[in-house]
Amino acid sequence: MRRFRWSAWTLLILLFSGFVLPLFLAGDPREPVASPFARPAWVGRNQAPALAFSVPPGEGKAFAWSWDAPRGLSVSGEVEFAGVPGSARLTWEKPSGEILVLADLSGQETATLDLDARDMAFRAALGLSPFDESLEGLFGGRGTIRVRIDSDVPVEKSSLSVRIPGDRWGLFGTDQRGRDVFRLFLAGIRVSLLVGVMAVLVSTVIGLSAGLLGGYVGGVVDALLMRAVDVLLSIPLLPILMVLAALWGKGLWQLVLILGLFSWMGTARTVRSMTLSFREAPYVEALRAIGAPTFYILARHGVPTVLPLLLANIALGVPGVILSEAALAYLGLSDPRVISWGRMLHEAQSFGAFTTGAWWLLLPPGLGIALLCFVFMDLGRALEEWADPRLKGGGGA
Amino acid sequence: MISMRGYWARRLGGAVCVVAIVLVANFFLFRLMPGDPVSTVLDPRFSPQAKAELEVLYGLDRPLAVQFLIYLERTATFDFGLSFATQRPVLDEILSRLPNTLALLVPAYLLSVLLGTVLGVLAARRRGRAAEKAVLSAGAISFSFPSFFVQMVLLLLFAYVYPVFPLRGSLSIPPPQGTWPLLVDRVWHLALPVGSLVLLGFGGWALTVRNLVVKVMGEDFMVLARAKGIGERRLFWGHAFRAVLPPLVTLFLLSLPGVVSGAVLTETVFSLHGVGRFLLDSVLGQDYPAAGGAFYLLTLITVASNLVADFLVQFTDPRIRTGERSSS
C-alpha cells in the first residue's frame, strides 16, 4: 500500500463526521428544528426560511417577505397594558395592505397568547382553509409584512414572539418530525460502523476458530463444521435474522451477536483451505515431531499464517453485515430509539416520503450505506494485494 | 453407478439435515421467546381457568418431548395452527400469498440470470468495450447498494415523480373485470418490482460469468482446441461455455437463499401481498404460529429448489454422472 487509498481518506472523514463532528454541533439530533418535510436549503430557494422575532410595543415588527407562504406559524408570549384596554388587537398586515386580526386582546390588562396555525379554531378565525397546508391567506405574495399590537391603551411590556418554523433547512432538510436529516445522517454513521465492525469481529473469531480447527484436526470435527457451514449457507439469511431479532430483542449488542453468528461461513472456508496446506508444511511437521501441542501450533504459527488474508476478509465482510443491519432496520426490526441509516429509510417509507416526494429522506442514508460498503470493499482489496502481491495489476478482474 | 448413488445420498442427506435443523430450531426458538406463548395471546387479566384451557389447546401442559412429537406430526402435515392475528389457518394464509411471491421471484430470477449470462459472455468476448464497463459497474452497484434503497429510489422516480407505475400493491382496487384486463393489471403492478430485481440481480451474475469465461479462455485446453483449428464459434460455445456451466449452476444454487431474502424486502418496498411480507408482519406482530410456519415454508422452498438445481448440475457436469471427483 504505497499509495494511500481514497477509501482510507473517506473512512477517516466518515469517522470524523460520525464521532467528532457531532460533539461540536449544538442540540440533540432528536429535537425538531423546522417544519416536517422541510426541503434542503439549497433546493428550496422559494421555500420559507425559519424565522423568529419578537413583537415590540408601538410600531410592532415589519419584515420583508419574498418567499412562498410557509406551512407553519406560531405566536406566543405575554402582553401587559398600562390599563385595561377597551379595544386591543394583534394585527397582521399582508403585503397587499389588507389587515387581519390574529387575536383580540380587549378587556385584559395582561393577555397571554399561544396561537398556532395548526389550531383549527385559529385558522377558522382568520378565514384560512382547514385543509390547505400552506398559509397562503396570511402571506399571499411578496412584500412587507407588519405585525403590531393595536390598542387604545399603551402597551407596557410585550414578550410576544412570532415563529415561522421554515420549510427549508440545512444540507438535507428535515424528516416527518422536523428533525435535521443531516444530524440524523451523522448519527447513522456511528451505528453502521459500530455494528458492521463489531459483528465482523465476532464472525471472524468464530470463523477463524472453526477454520483452524476443521482444517488442522480434520476428520469428524472437520466434517461436522463444514456440514454446519453448508446448512447455514442454504438457509435464507434475512428471514432467520428477522425471527432472531424479533425474539431476542432489537438492541445493538443483540444485533451484533446475531449478525456475527450468521456470517462466519465464508471466513471459515477461507481459513480452512489455508490451514490444510499449513498443516502439511515441513516446519509444522517438525513442530509436531518435537511434541508441540496443537493449540500452541495453531495459536503461534497458524494464526500468523492466515492473518494477512484474514484482515482482508474482515474488510470484505463488513459490507455484507452493514447491508444486513440496514435491511433489518429498514424492515422495522431495530431499536426505534437508535438512529441508524436503515431506520431512517424505514421511517421514510412508513411516514410518507413517497406521498410527499421527500427524496432527501431517501438519498442520504441510502448513499451513505453504499459509500461505506464501497470504502470497505476497496480497503479489503488493498489488504488482499498487500497479503498476496501477485494480485496486484493482475489481468483478471 | 455406485458413486452416483453416493452423490444423491449426500445431497438428499444434506437437504434432510437442513430441514431437521430448521424444524428443531423452529420448535425451540418459538418456545424460548420472552414469556410463554399463552401469555402473549392472553390478556393478563384473564382467569387462571381460561389460561389453563388455552394451555391445553396449545398442548403446553404436556412434557416438552411430547410437545415436540405433536409439533413434528403437525408440521409434517403442514398444520401450523391458527394465526393469532387473523384466527385463520396459517397454511391458508400462506397459500393465498404464495402465487404472488412466485409471480415476483420466478420471472425476476430467470430474467436476471438470462440477462446476466448474455451480458457476461459479451463482456468476456469483447474485453475493454462498453459492454464490459457496463457489466463491471452494474456488478459493483449490486454488491454495495442496499437493494431496498435502489427499489425505493425507483419507486419514487417511476411512481411519484413520473407516475407511470402504481405506488403499491399487487392488483388495483377494485381489480378489473375479465381475464385480459386482470392479467395486464398484474403485469403493470409487477413491472417495477420485477424490473428492479432484474436490475439489481443481473450485475453480480454477469460479473461472475465474465470472470469465469475470461479465466477459461486462457486454459491450456482452449489453446489446444484453437491449435486444432476449431472455428471461433464452436470454440466458444462448445468448449469455453461448456466448461463454465457447472460452476454457474452451483452459483445459481448458492444464490437461492438470497432470492428468498430479497422477496421479503421487495414485497415490503412495493407493499405486495406475498409470503415475505407475511413473515415480516407476523414477526412484527408477534404472531408466532404464522412466523414459524412462514419461516419453515420459505426454508423448505429453498431446500427443494436447491435439490432441483442439484439435479440439473449433473447434465452440465459429466464428472458427476460418471462419478469422477472434480479436481478443484
Q: How would you describe the overall organization of this protein?
A:
The complex is a heterodimer of chains A (397) and B (328). By secondary structure, chain A is α+β, with helices and mostly antiparallel strands. Chain A has two domains: 51-164, Jelly Rolls (Sandwich), CATH 2.60.120; 181-391, MetI-like (MetI-like fold, Orthogonal Bundle). Chain A is 51% helix and 13% strand. Chain A has helices at 6-24, 120-126, 136-139, 181-217, 219-233, 237-248, 252-261, 265-280, 282-289, 294-330, 341-350, 353-356, 363-387, and strands at residues 51-54, 61-65, 74-81, 88-93, 99-104, 110-116, 143-151, 155-158, 161-164. In chain A, the strands form two sheets. In chain A, strands 1, 3, 6, 8 and 9 form a five-stranded antiparallel sheet that branches. A four-stranded antiparallel sheet of chain A has the order 2-7-4-5. The longest helix of chain A is centred in the middle third of the chain and has 37 residues, at 181-217. Chain A is elongated, with a radius of gyration of 31 Å. Chain B has 328 residues and is mostly helical. Chain B contains 13 helices and no strands. The mean pLDDT of chain B is 80. In chain B, helix 5 (90-125) packs antiparallel against helix 10 and helix 8 packs across helix 10. The two termini of chain B are 22 Å apart. Helices cover 78% and strands 0% of the residues of chain B.
